Every structure is written in structure tokens, then in C-alpha cells.
């Protein structure tokens, strides 16, 4: 009990210290005239737009198509980014988990020894690279690409795919390192080569977890892709910020609801998939 | 030959009858198809890709991210260049780097503390086990229908609110809040707190729903109410595992805090965009690198604390 | 398995003064042993005596620190990678805890028995798209252990006894010359223990395989295996036809002494 209180106290003190450090004051929350504008914005939440708000300028009826397009683009960008990350993540995961198959290399096997040497040297290098790639936010990657290459659709995909590959690689390699080794050992004893042991003995055991995590990253990817719209990608964020700029708050809410519906729907589906994947393992 | 064909028949029969999960097969096939199809939409075509111009852009970019004094003295020796770069780095750090670093870390800590408190309060209301009319044990007598319905409403409603909270990208929340609250830390703190409260609430309520039931059930049969069970049964036994989630989310808070500055809140992202607006690409890269270092420090701290917690729990 | 191949080397296994150490612990100490092809041998003794280490030596999974070891006519201390692979794939090893991959179907777990005889791409093809012939072959092997109808079942949906038979089928699918089973009847009820021993001896006789089984239960050992090797504290205590073993021998074998604290088996 004593140590728990101590931890809570420490966290509380850290919170206050940090609040003081960034000059966070409750008074900043009140007495702002701008609350009125936010009030107007939140009132619009009750009546999201179904047509363009300045119908006089833009023909009516096309707005729903625009929402559909925004969702479609967001989905496509996420899918492209996640498919790249899956490839990258598998490569990183394989190299990062090299330790797992070091222990499985057949004693006396020429291949095994050569691979061990490569794996050992590569292991720490790959882990470091993954950590660095992961530490740069996808928005920052997007800005770097924008600056270095100019506006480019593919850049947004890479901006998401780079840190996501590293994150997936980290999780994959941890899953593989923690996977039960016994089955793999049995395959080795039956004469399987190190590569066979890795691919058939270790990978199948982690596929359900790996898939569950991939689905979770896809959900994160939807959010990231939508936000990259604020930074030049043609995804939902770009539509939303246009409407926001023109103070068409009803339109903003329509986009927001559409995004939420997409993410929540995906969340429910992937939750059901996850449950079914893990049920098979437990029973 | 005929024996062989009857065997083939038997195998085919077993194959037809094999257990399979249609929902998983169809769902995951569609998902795989989506991943592959995204590349054939024409959205990312490199047909019109102008390699020459891109390469020129890239070269220009690379030449200008070198620290400014090094650009000015191309004739300097390597050692001199190192000295120049070192001095330049120190200047940047003193000028605004240190301040941005402090602000980013501070902001992330405040945000995660808010998120932690909010999720701890909402957790029992979102738990499938606790947010029922008669938590953990069947009621002694028939409960009035309105009570059962009320608790169902509370449970479902809270779970849905948590889903919503974690579904909205934190960047968008902050984007809206900046209008009302101005360019101080609040929009970022609130955005991060809302998003992470949603995630911590979900992870936490899963912990509560999966915990062994012996202790809370016995507490319940001793007459403890749901809040008592939560505070004296669930929280103590799940405390360290919840803390592990807490620090894991803090890591991502640090990462997100760096970019929320792009909305005008003085974290690293703010200075990054400012340098870009001034077209000081070397300075921009400095803030990218500093952001990376900040995130790494957060990672290390969090990994250390989680390691300690896992060892003790 | 032709007569000619048998004549070329009659011994399935031959150990000459073999010792194995794990750090400071001596697991096996100067063991000499010859097992002819087609023999059925039981390894008996208290836990920690070195039975599993001995079985792993015979399967070429464990290096001998001293002494000479011949497995299927192959001298193991001078063997290179490919022939080691060949030796291993010539011996079906049934681990105590089966070591199957729970999330896969029975078909795939059995198919993995042939990994040692295939290159990587061939094995990938066979596991992803098993041919009709392969499916029939696996079905056949499963029929021999009485599990034919479970060909496409998920392995983790099977009972412990059924999983053990899948592990036996995987070993059989290697078309091995010898079967080695590590404690196949530890921690199972007596009826199932008898059934397992019956299955193993029947399979060995049908396929003219050499059989090596480590076990605790002296009654089972005596009723199923014609030759018993008693092991105690890393040394051979007695190696004789089963008729020559007396109750007094068993009593002495299992007498509590200064047992080595070494864990028996895989560290799992």
C-alpha cells in the first residue's frame, strides 16, 4: 500500500510540476470571447450538413459524394501505407528477432553458423534503426518529404509507412522472440534447416497475434491518414480544413461524423476478428 | 488404383467438412484485397513523376539542411567544420531548443495525468462487470426494470463515449480547441487527454473484466457496493498493470505533443514550422532531430519504469 | 530399408564410452550401448538419470562431449550439415509434450515431419498447397494411429491423447528407420498408457522400425519391451533382456540415492 501511494504521489507531483513548467493556468480556460465561436461550432454538431452550405454557389446534392470521396481517399491511403508497413514490418521483425533463430540454428550446420554471424551483427543495428525511424512522427515525415520532393501523393503514404514499419517491426520481433520455442525445437530435431525452423516453427504460432496487431495499426492509420490531409495529402483532413476555413461548421461536422463512423465500424469489425482469432488459441 | 481413389474421396470428404470460420475468411480476404487494390486505384501513379525535377529538389534540400556556418565556409577543414556545427547547435539549443524541449515534455506529462484520472473515473462505469444493476453476483430479489435498463444505458453509453474519444484524432480535437482557447497549452493538453482517456479506459476496463473474480465476489457478498469493490478490490490488484499502460501511453503522448505544436502551441512542432516558414532548413532539421531525441528520452524513461513495474508485479 | 542397406550396417545405434556434460553437471558418464536394427528397447530409471539426454543423443540432437557415437551407420563426430540433417530426418522423435503448433491444422503439423527431406521452397509449397498425393499420404499415416477423421481438425481442438497421436503421426510421416519416444506415458491414466505403448510397439513391428522408449513405469516396460536399459546417475545400471530383470533390480534402480539435480528433458 505504501509503495502504491508513493507512486501516485510522485505522478501527482510530476503533473503539477509539469503544469507549472508550461504555465498552465485554469484562468486561461475562462473569460474568452472565443468561447462563443466554439459554441457556434458545437451547435452545428446537432445538424451536420447534407448539402453544401453555400448551395447558391455550388450545385446541391453533390456534398454527400464529396464525403464519400473523402472517406475513399482516406481508406486508400491507409491501405497503401499499411500494405507497405506490413512488408517493412516483416523484414524489420525478421531481422530484429534474429536472436530467436540464433538459438535454433542446427549445431554444426554450415548455414547456421554463417547466418548466426550475420544475425548477431545486424541485430543491434536494426533495432537502433527501428527506434530512430519510430521516433519521428508521421506528420514530420510528411513535412520532410514535402520539402525534399515537393507535393507528391506517394509521399504521404511513405510518411505513414516509415514509422509504422518500425513500430510493426518492433512488435513483430517481440512476438517472435516470446513465441514458444518448443515446437520449433522439435522441427529442428526432425532435421529442418534454420530457415525452415523459423518459417514453419516460429511464424505460424505468432500469426494470430500479428494479424490482430496489424488490424489495430490499420485503425491508427486511418486517423493518421485523415490528419495528413492538413499537410497536403488529399485525404479527409484536407476536405475538413477547407470547410473549416470557410466557417462551414455543418460541413465540418458531417466530415467528422463520417470519419468517426468509418473508424468505429472498423473498430467493431476488428474487435470481432480479434476475438475469433484468440478464441481458437485458448480452447 | 480403386483403393487410391476411395482414399482421395475420403480426403475430399474430410476437406469439405473441415471446420472453418466464414466470418474470418471472408473478412480477412476482403481486408487483404483492400490492401492490394489500393495500389491499382491510380492514386499513386508514378507515370507523371518528374524524376529530374524531384532529384533537383532533393539535392537542393540536402545542401541546405547542413548547418548554416558550414554552408558559409565550404573551404574549412573537417575539424573546423565540426567546431562550427557544434557552436551552431549550442546556439540553437540556447535560443529556443531548450524551451521547446521543456515545453513538449511538460505538456505530455500534464496530458497523461489528466487522461489517467479521467479514465480511472470512467472505468467502472464502462466495465461490463461493474456497470450492471447487480454487479458480480445475481440479485437477491427481482430488480425493477428501470434499474436494469438504466445500468445498461450507463454501461453501453460509457463504452461508446470511450470509443468516440479514442476515435477522433487528437490533432483534430486540438485544431478545433485552439480557436476557443488560444495558443496556450490547453488545447493540446485537452486533446491528448481526451484521446488517451479513451484508450486507457478501454484497456483498463478490459483489465477489470478479465481479473480473477474471487476477491471482488467475496467483497460483494460481504455487502460492498460497486465503488467499494472498484476502489478496494479492483484498483489495488490491477494497479501496476494499469501503470504499465499509463507509461506506454505517455510515450505516445510525447510523440504526439511534438507535432501538436504545429497548431501554434509552443512545442517542438511550432519551432519546426517556424523554421520552415523562414526557409531555414538547417534549423528545421535541428528541430526534427530534437523531436526525435525527446521521443527517445521518453521511450527510455517509460521502458525503464515499465521494466521496474513488471519486475515487481 | 532394403536388405542390402540393413546388411551394410546392422547396428541402428552404437555408443562407445560417450559422456555429456552440462556446465559442471555430468548428464551421461561413459555410456556404451549397441542397439540393433528392429530392436525394441526401453530406457528405465529415476528422473534426472539421463534418459532424455540419451534419447537426444540417439536423435543426433545432442552432441557428445566424449566418446564415439554412430547413428544409422553414420559416425556423428565427423558429420557435416547435410548428412546431419539426413540422420535426423531418418529418426522419428516424439517429444514428451508433443511440441505441435496449436494454431495449425493436423494436416500441416504432420506435413512438417518431412521438412528435413525437403528444400525450403519445396516445403513451403507443400505446406501452403499440399498436393492430393500428400494429403492422402498424411491421411494414411493418421489412419495408422487411428486419427484419420481428424485430418483437417485444428490441432488445439484435440485432446491431449489425440495430440500425442498427431506427434506420432508426424514422426511416422518422416518414413523413419527408428522411432524414439520420450516419456510417452508420463502423466497419463493407466488405460491410455497401455494404449500408447501398444500403438508404439505395433507401429514399430509393422514398419520394422527400431524403437526406443524412455519410461518410468516398470510394469509397462516389462510387458511391452523385450530389452531394458536401466540408467542411474548418468551410467548404465543394467542392460539385459527383460526376462533377466528381477524385482530386486528395479528396487535398486529406483532407490533414492544422491541423485543429480539435473532437469530431465527440454528446458520448457
Structural class of chain B: mainly alpha
Order of helices and strands of chain B: HHHHHHHHHHHH
Through-space gap between termini of chain A? 37 Å
Q: What is the C-level CATH assignment of chain B?
A: Mainly Alpha
Give a verbal description of the structure.
The complex is a heterotrimer of chains A (283), B (313) and C (268). Chain A is mainly α. Chain A has a single domain (80-282), classed as MetI-like (MetI-like fold, Orthogonal Bundle). Chain A has helices at residues 2-21, 35-43, 63-96, 98-102, 110-135, 138-149, 153-178, 182-189, 194-228, 236-245, 249-282. Chain A is globular. The two termini of chain A are 37 Å apart. The model of chain A has no long low-confidence stretch (mean pLDDT 84). Chain B has 313 residues and is mostly helical. Chain B has one domain (90-312): Orthogonal Bundle (MetI-like fold), CATH 1.10.3720.10. The longest helix of chain B is centred in the first third of the chain and has 49 residues, at 78-126. The termini of chain B are far apart. The model of chain B has no long low-confidence stretch (mean pLDDT 87). Chain C has 268 residues and is of the alpha/beta class. Chain C folds into 2 domains: 1-90 and 177-268, Rossmann fold, CATH 3.40.50; 98-175, no CATH class. Helix content of chain C is 36%, strand content 24%. Chain C is built from 10 helices and 10 strands. A 6-stranded mixed β-sheet of chain C has the order 6-7-8-3-9-10, sandwiched between helices. In chain C, strand 1 (11-22) and strand 2 (25-36) form a beta hairpin. Chain C is globular. The chains are: A mainly alpha (283), B mainly alpha (313), C alpha/beta (268). Chains A and B meet through helix 1, helix 2, helix 3, helix 5 and helix 6 of A and helix 2, helix 3, helix 5, helix 6 and helix 7 of B.
Feature tags:
heterotrimer; A: 283 residues; mainly alpha; MetI-like fold; B: 313 residues; 0% strand; extended
Task: Furnish the topology, listing elements before pairings.
The complex is a heterotrimer of chains A (283), B (313) and C (268).
Chain A: H1 2-21, H2 35-43, H3 63-96, H4 98-102, H5 110-135, H6 138-149, H7 153-178, H8 182-189, H9 194-228, H10 236-245, H11 249-282
Chain B: H1 2-16, H2 22-37, H3 51-64, H4 68-72, H5 78-126, H6 145-167, H7 170-181, H8 186-210, H9 214-221, H10 226-260, H11 268-277, H12 281-312
Chain C: H1 3-8, E1 11-22, E2 25-36, E3 40-44, H2 51-58, E4 66-71, E5 74-75, H3 81-89, E6 91-94, H4 106-111, H5 120-128, H6 132-144, H7 160-173, E7 178-182, H8 190-207, E8 210-215, H9 218-224, E9 227-232, E10 235-241, H10 247-253
Parallel strand pairs in C: 3-8, 3-9, 6-7, 7-8
Antiparallel strand pairs in C: 1-2, 1-4, 4-5, 9-10
Helix pairs in contact in C: 6-7
